[in-house]
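User: structure tokens for this one?
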Amino acid sequence: MELNSFTRNIWQSAAAPHKGRFAAWMARILHTLVLLGGPGIFLLAFLDSSVLSFPVVTDLLIMQQAISSPPRMIYFAAMAVVGSLAGCFLLYWLAWRGGEAFYHRLSKTGSEHLRRWMEHNAFLCIFAASLLPPPMPFKPFIILAGILEVRPRTFATAIIAGRGLRYLLEGWLAIHYGAQSIHFVLGHKWEFAGLSLALVAVLALASRLISRALAPAA
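Assistant:
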């Protein structure tokens, strides 16, 4: 599948902050990945969630592939979720290994409450970070989860839920609105971020209300 001029222009705008050889190198990488289809999306999501950073590009690739092949949209979104999960676990593991000494130092200085707070709010924090589009921060939450040793099951569930909702929504928009949806997503990042934060706030409030309602019966 060849990159059409519209998609190439979109990716060039996504790479605009980068100059010189890096921008040219990234363009070649993106061209190769789109030819790979689902495996390319997996690899891009893995790299973006771990050792490199390709803001927005994974989202654009999912949307471009969904427009080209609507019946496979769920497959493309799933490959992105699995790739992102694998990359996040790599970053989580590195932070966990490198952060053990830091965590034990926090414990000695009376900062154990930080870990308790993260244990109670880890799912919502990681879910929100996974759902929010760039330029909202993501990797700092993954690193913090590793340092504070968030349970792997909670970590994985939050990543899958956040990334899955985000990628499926983008794929749905791409199928129903075509190339215009890509312009819309790129032009309304902050609106999407605001809606995502509102959703997380509603979920947090509902969780607290349910917990309080069930507390007397426990």
